[in-house]
Amino acid sequence: MENNNSIISENEIPVIIPKRLMVISGHPDDEIISCGGTMLKYQALGSEIFVVVATSGLGGYAKIEYKNEIANQRKQELELVRTTLKCNIIELGYSNLDVNREKISEITNLIRDIKPQVILIPHYSDFHRVHRNLSLIAKEAIYHCSTGKAYGGSGRNWTPLGVYYYESPSCKFQYVEGSVFIVVDIEKYWSKKKEIFNTIYLSQKEVLERVLEWANDTATFSTSAAIARVVFKFEEDESVIRGFLGLAEYFHTVVIKVKDQFYIPHASILFNLVSS
Ligand SMILES: [Zn+2]
């Protein structure tokens, strides 16, 4: 049978815009830190954005009165994200991210209801337990909503077209074995992303510097391990390269810049990008 969904193109690769894009975030702010530019970019292209926030992000605060204050501030921050990004925010309010049937059921049914074409989730090897466990829960939920009848799914199957792990400060992809890489160039949205993070996430001020440093990362990396050189052709402008300088968000890989050299780690090979 003919497949009417295919396009033959000669000069350009068509860009497919997901009608609905879902970002699953462990704490309020993970979505901006890891996917903010991507959300802004795809929203501008016409996607409807759904941010699912698992916890209220209060893990580190012991004193009750301080906790309430921070909780209120974070609520206001999320409200600002909602209005600034014009996205839908779904707060799950989990107090922990223990992997269990209740959470898997809730997220499975959320995906069935919203029907996102693309889902962005944390990486399963993230050092932060909340991120890591959320990744496992999300993976299992996506499996159930794509294939099974579990958790009331009869006749409600939904298979997303793409699921991607996003990079976070606690899961940098140069350390992830066998990286598959997709780089979303967010140059046009970088300043907006910074502005949102600067103005909205006041409770995260101390994190900001570290995160921005990470985003502009000039990672120290043993370049003597580079065993393959690939000729990298510069684009007409240098937006691609600038993307590598932290103006991009990385999905399951990273391009490392050391001085004026660029490297891509892939499995045990370090590719050195050489300007043509
Ligand atoms: Zn987080």
Keywords for this entry:
4-stranded mixed β-sheet; 22% strand; binds zinc ion; 5-stranded parallel β-sheet; Rossmann fold; globular; alpha/beta; 276 residues
Give a structural overview.
The structure is a single chain. This protein has 7 helices and 11 strands. The protein has helices at about 30-45, 65-85, 100-115, 130-145, 190-200, 205-215, 240-245; strands spanning about 20-25, 50-55, 90-95, 120, 160-165, 180-185, 225-230, 250, 255-260, 260-265, 270-275. It is α/β, with parallel strands linked by helices. It is globular and about 60 Å long. It has a single domain, classed as 3-Layer(aba) Sandwich (Rossmann fold). Zinc ion (ZN) binds next to loops.
Q: What are the SSEs and their pairings?
A:
Layout: E1 20-25, H1 30-45, E2 48-55, H2 64-85, E3 88-94, H3 101-114, E4 118-122, H4 129-147, E5 162-166, E6 182-185, H5 190-200, H6 205-215, E7 226-232, H7 239-247, E8 248-251, E9 256-258, E10 261-266, E11 269-275
Helix pairs in contact: 1-5, 3-4
The structure holds zinc ion (ZN).
Residues 26-27, 30, 128, 131 line the site of zinc ion (ZN).
